[in-house]
Write a structure and sequence with these properties.
The protein has about 180 residues and is an all-alpha fold. It has a single domain, classed as Butyryl-CoA Dehydrogenase, subunit A, domain 3. The protein contains 8 helices and no strands. The chain is globular. The protein starts with a helix and ends with a helix.
Amino acid sequence: MHATQSAFANRASFPLPPPTDFAAIYARYRPPIQAKSRRLLGGSPLADDVVQETFVRFWKSGFADEENPRTVMAWLYRTCTRLAIDVIRDRRRTMPGELTEERTPCGVDLAAATEARAAVLSLAQSVPEEELAVAVLCRVDGLAQPEAAAVLDVSERTVRRMLDRFDERTLELRKEFTS
């Protein structure tokens, strides 16, 4: 048996939601997940890839049967955040100076965009994934700590501790980029 055949056999061994149900779920939840992905990754094709991968994982997870919209949204939000962080970490191999006028959105200062990208890449290298996920949810997406706790399925106290550790770890980096 070929590797592709066994992979297909593994995928076919668990029930998937009916396509019509999944299409309705996708239509309902794609806009906020796409907005989140674009906030984290910009308008790059990678942002769209993260959205697509988020929904593929959702479809395979069995969560499509979940009726509580808050549970569904939390799962999608958490998965999208983690996938986007993975993409940001993978980007660290790309030098920040590779931005050009053609690749920068209209109206965005190229120097500022390059500096911001360098800061994000530096954070992705120096901060544990869990802390970065909490910081992204609270500082980038503007979620309150209780909301971030619900999305990540942790306590509010854990969110506060992770934000405190994030602030401690990034103090020198923030000084470097603000001076």
